[in-house]
Amino acid sequence: MEAIGRLAGGIAHDFNNLLTVISGYSEIVLSTLSAEDPMRESIQAISDAGVRAASLTRQLLTFSRQTELELRVLNLNEVVREVERMLRRLIGEDVLLTSVLDPAIHNVKIDPALFEQVLMNLAVNARDAMPTGGKLTIETCNVNGDRDYAATHPQIQTGPYVMLAVTDTGSGMPPEARTRIFEPFFTTKEAGKGTGLGLAVVHGIIKQSNGHIEVCSETDVGTTFKIYLPAVAEQVDAPEALDSGQAIGGAETILLVEDEKAVRGLALQTFQSNGYQVLTAADGRDAMLVAEEFRGPIDLLMTDVVMPGMGGRQLAESLRSAFPKMKVLYTSGYTDDTVVRHGILRKEVAFLQKPYTPLSLTRNVRAVLDGTTCLATSEQ
Fold it and tell me: What is the pTM of this model?
């Protein structure tokens, strides 16, 4: 786990820079094409591939526990209802999807996006186990983890839990496969039909959320995955306000500091097309020279966190005396662990994770400049 985690973290930076360029320019080109344009389908395919690649990178980092969870208080029934339509398209018409949801379910605290990933991965696994069709059932209920229950479930401590079960009527697994099912890169599927990461990711997300997952399976009968999450007394968090989905421009001056030339070019084009005045630099020392020569206020510093020589945090602190009103937006393609070690605590500053798109970039920049709640996230 540690070795694979280091490998995932090591490739994340370069890979996320590449994905920023791929997804960013795909979005720009798509915005210029009409619905009837013969090139639109090809460009959309490139964009979709970028999204899938970003998802795979996040799965690697999640399973190796090198990504930070954005925990929210949720009702699992609501999560299931929200993803049901997507799951129906995912599993196909020959698989009957049924939900049996306890209306008195307790709330839990988990990352909603990652839990949707859990449901999707389990649904894909179930679909692959039922190539000629079958039945998929999602069930929720409250579980009282008393001493007797904890005695037969050693991974569960005493206290209230919410249990979510995903059951299929597929081919099932033999005992030797069940013991290895959560191992990374282990798969019972044919070559080329599975990465062996899906269930490892599920296991990583649940464990990182202080939960437990177990599997019951019998050959030619089916499989049930049971997820146990600690119940919480807090009320469900209010949903985030939706915006219009349009990029918002401005006339402010932005100092853009990015050591990856292609990413810097994408951000520069995005800012200029939305009316901003932009100063660019390839690293921290270059940015200091640019700022010294510029005659006027700098409204926003957008800087990569990790750069050769002077890092983003040091750069921001060095410029603060000359530009006391300057806002700062940090960005990085590295994992959370690397970002934290460079002095950036994501919960305390505005931070945009790569890969990002022109739309997510302009939304975040506008939010930071206006002093409103920053999205501070990648939209991949």
Answer: 0.60
